[in-house]
Specification:
This protein is of the alpha/beta class. Helices cover about 45% and strands about 20% of the residues. The protein has a domain at about 1-165 and about 195-220: NAD(P)-binding Rossmann-like Domain (Rossmann fold, 3-Layer(aba) Sandwich), CATH 3.40.50. Helix 1 links the parallel strand 1 and strand 2 (about 25-30). The radius of gyration is 19 Å and the shape is globular. InterPro entries: NAD(P)-bd_dom, NAD(P)-bd_dom_sf, NAD(P)-dependent_oxidoreduct. Pfam families: NAD_binding_10 (PF13460). This is NAD(P)-binding domain-containing protein.
Length: about 300
């Protein structure tokens, strides 16, 4: 196959490219800025339909590995920014890919859509604009692509790994914390995790199968205590992680939400509700279970 990968210069995009190439597929890497390993410099969010159609010609499939994540914070309503980053470019790309004759697609999405699907009582979309944008992304993607272009949504949890100078941005402050002399504290709860390579494998599998499925890309479930302990060990400062009660965590995030509202800045995940989410066991039954220790070490080594 020949696959177009939008966001090919990012951490996950690079691992998708690597996995596809390892399997013998031809790839075209697309990014907004020129880099040594980028084949085409195109900002999909700003490109015309004709430009995207020409870009998609000759490819069997497309991958969208870009978008706006939940950490982005800015002044004013966050919903329009999330739509512009996560929904509009996917719709534009898939419309062009469908017309160009592509037969498969994958979008790197978020595991929060998985939890919204299996736990609708949590009300994640109503509480968090980021989750709502990811649900809208999936709906619009499949509506735009139609039955002849199956779109797999790769639901990505917390990621470890590195690619050249790319690392998971959420891990940067955590690695600095575990490298310091400060004590480590963790609440109850935990999260599904994966390696960047695991995301590449999940995307390549979905493309080869033209599955069009929702694909949770989890490899190992970790409690917050275990996650911090493993990161501390990988960073060369192994030590005990102390448990912290749930009530101060909830109180801290409620206070953070109030401060954020006063500043006028809105994040994709509402701070006042994030404490309750953090204290849950955000676990996913891994389709491809494996330890993520090597990817944790890779992350700690790459962050300086």
């Amino acid at each position: 196959m020949k696959i177009l990968v939008v966001g090919g210069s990012g951490l996950l995009g690079r691992h998708v490219l690597d996995e596809l190439r390892t399997r013998g597929h031809e790839t075209t890497a697309v990014a907004r800025t020129a880099r040594e390993d980028v084949d085409s410099v195109v900002d999909v969010a700003k490109a015309s339909h004709d430009e995207l159609r020409a870009l998609s010609e000759g490819h069997d499939g497309v991958v969208f590995a870009g978008g706006m994540d939940d950490r982005a914070v800015g002044k004013g309503p966050v919903e329009p920014r999330l739509y512009a980053g996560n929904v509009a470019p996917v719709a534009a790309l898939l419309r062009a890919a469908r017309e160009a004759g592509c037969t498969r697609a994958a979008v790197l999405a978020s595991y929060y859509t998985y939890f919204d699907r299996i736990h609708p009582e949590w009300g994640l979309a109503a509480k968090h604009p980021y989750v709502d944008s990811r649900l809208e992304q999936a709906r619009v993607a499949r509506e735009t692509a139609g039955p002849d272009l199956p779109v797999a949504m790769i639901e990505v949890p917390f990621v470890f790994g590195a690619a050249a100078d790319r690392v998971p941005q959420w891990a940067v402050p955590v690695v600095k914390w575990v490298r310091s002399a400060a004590p480590l504290f963790a609440p109850v709860g935990g999260t599904a995790t994966t390696s960047a390579r695991g995301v590449g494998i999940a995307a390549a599998d979905a493309l080869e199968q033209a599955s069009g499925a929702d694909v949770p890309a989890a490899e190992e479930n970790l409690s917050w205590e275990d996650l911090l302990g493993r990161m501390a060990g990988a960073a060369g400062r192994p030590r005990r992680v102390w448990p912290v009660p749930s009530w101060p965590v909830r109180a801290m995030f409620r206070l953070g939400g109030q401060v954020g509202r006063l500043s006028g800045k809105q994040p994709g995940l509402k701070v006042e509700h994030f404490g309750g989410l953090l204290l849950r066991e955000l676990y996913v039954e891994p389709a491809r279970a494996r330890p993520v220790d090597a990817a944790i070490r890779e992350t700690a080594t790459a962050i300086r």
